[in-house]
Amino acid sequence: MGTPDFAVPSLRTLVEGPDTLVGVVTQPDQPAGRGMALRPSAVKACALEHDIPVFQPAKLRPPEVMARLRDWQPDLLVIAAYGKLLPTSLLDLPPHGCINVHASLLPKYRGAAPIQWAIAHGERQTGVTIMQVNEYMDAGDILLQKACSITETETGGSLHDTLSVLGAETLDRALGLLKHGRLVARPQDESQVTYAPAIKKEDGRIDWTQDALSIERRIRAFHPWPSAYTSLRGRLLKISAVRVMQSALSDVAPGTVLPSTPGQLLVATGRGALALEEVQLAGKKRLAITAFLRGQPQTPGTLLGT
């Protein structure tokens, strides 16, 4: 059971493994693009490539949905970013239970967006957890974990790709241990729980009153989606790369364009400043800051944001 790109390496691991993959459950096709044509999930596309039966129920509780899943007679259910909580009737279906591939070192960052919030909060380490699934969100016993570092240039996109592959590798290891009776479950420490709620478009709006490092982390975390953004003279300005400048500032409103050397766009924050390195004005291409300033020179004192 899975839906987005993150789940595809785990699906390929199951396809290429020694066991029979009896079926794939994924979310219904969603409208996308300018024409809003229905587009299959990444998991569905991968499953169809390998002639794996695909089931796309809108809800999991109806009796006919459960009847379809019972017909497959699964021994084990593997979940990776499926997108919905599973009802108890489904959790009880496979004799060997349900296991999930989660993109954090639980109990930290339970929820829908562990990758982005780990970067935004300045974590230096994250990883993947293979866990037993229960009726609560990401609260089941831990079966296996694998850690990785978060670099100072990591983006939401790059860490997504790293953890997607690491999740598949850790899943493969967990399945081998499970077969040999060597996978030992341990409960999560509830005192260490943190949450990673779903990302909304509004989360990308830059609050220039925050300190420079916090803003820089959020810009990396929300690249490529939902993108960090502000406004410039009433037009949307996406910002995809910046550099922290430890400038000594006084009496300058956060979001103010500062005097700087040619080819540089320096902006004041609540503490310190940011040198913008890559931006995209609404209706235009994404540009390095030198190219942007050639066509859109900015005067010191200009205020970004509202």
Briefly summarize what is shown.
With 306 residues, the chain is an alpha+beta fold. It has helices at 8-16, 42-49, 63-72, 88-91, 114-120, 156-179, 212-221, 289-295; strands spanning 24-25, 30-32, 37-39, 54-55, 77-80, 98-102, 125-132, 142-149, 228-232, 235-245, 257-258, 265-268, 273-281, 287-288. The longest helix has 24 residues, at 156-179.
Total number of domains: 2
Structural class: alpha+beta
Termini separation comes to 43 Å
What is the assigned CATH homologous superfamily of the largest domain?
Answer: Formyl transferase, N-terminal domain
Task: Provide the CATH top-level class of the largest domain.
Answer: Alpha Beta
**Uncertain ranges:** none
Tell me, briefly, the overall form. elongated
* Reported CATH architecture of the largest domain: 3-Layer(aba) Sandwich
Give helix % range.
25-40%
Largest sheet: 6 strands, antiparallel
Order of helices and strands: HEEEHEHEHEHEEHHEEEEEEH
Q: What is the CATH topology descriptor of the largest domain? A: Rossmann fold
Query: What is the tally of helical segments?
Result: 8
Total beta-strand segments = 14
The quaternary organization reads as single chain
What number is the mean pLDDT? 96
The portion of residues forming beta strands comes to 15-25%
What is the alpha-carbon Rg in Å?
23 Å
